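Figure S7 source data.
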Amino acid sequence: MTDHDNIIDIPSLQWYPGHMRKAERLVKENLKLVDVVVELLDARIPMSSANPILREIIGGKPRVIVLNKADLADETATRAWVKHFAEQGVTAVPVDAVKGRGVKELVQAIAKCAKPKTDKLVQHGAKARAARCMILGIPNVGKSSLINRLSGGAKTKVENRPGVTRAKQWIRLGAQLELLDMPGILWPKFEDQQAALHLAFTGAINDNVYDVSSVVLLLLDTLRIKSPSDLKERYRLDEELTSGLELLEIIGRNRGCLRAGGKIDYEKAEQIVLTDFRSGRLGRVILDVLPSAPDTSECGKGNSENDDKRNRERISSR
Ligand code: G4P
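Tokens for the predicted guanosine-5',3'-tetraphosphate complex:
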């Protein structure tokens, strides 16, 4: 990644140490109220969308992982990630929070994960109760969509509970679940440029905090290795997919992104590529490589030094 360092301008992200400490404190303060922590990850980037210190923050609290946006991720690779998490003793459930796919399985997984605790309470004479959880994840990963799905659109508040600050509200999510209503926003791995790039590709971080041109070229470079047939089909490409820059030029031309004098409107072509990728029209891809798998996907791999130089020249000539 040395050639592409600092494409993502990390210091200008909306997250500052103060925000992070506040988010961390909020999770820690409320942890004792729940049986299970539900961690939302983006199924296309299960590593890059993870909070770097969540496990440390939640200690031994049972955790269920949601691989959300599974409709946009490769199914076989998703199964491999589910297996990977299972090997670490964590249940991961692929979910499409928009269409509701996997939501039933998720509810069952959370209830199962909470069962040792809820059973114990019953053994000690308490009334049987729903599993209590908090939902955590980085911005845009689909927390609100999932909560909407789980609640069927109608959030039912649970009555105030003795011993719990009045401000704390619970939302009933069907018969089996109660959700602690708190802003469950976590921060991703900003310090890692590869992760930051993947977050930019998927739209998890705002497009105005990075150099869109460079990011799109790297995205095209990644896709021509990971999903060349989808790329060729979508943009009707007959040519060999040689580099991100050449691809962008062809896409711009094929899509009529032209300025006066027939010059390519790169900004327009870039937006087409970003929108197509984020909506799954360039194939169902998982960008993060399983820790045990050989990494053949690194962005920009296959680029010659000349390509990199030409990319820089084009971007700086705008
Ligand atoms: P957040 O609360 O974690 O910040 O995320 P939110 O639910 O607002 O979702 C962010 C975007 O991701 C939304 O799209 C939402 O529709 C989309 N999304 C959430 N879950 C899924 C999923 O499982 N699959 C797919 N394909 N998309 C998902 P948006 O374009 O920002 O908003 P909208 O146009 O859908 O309203």
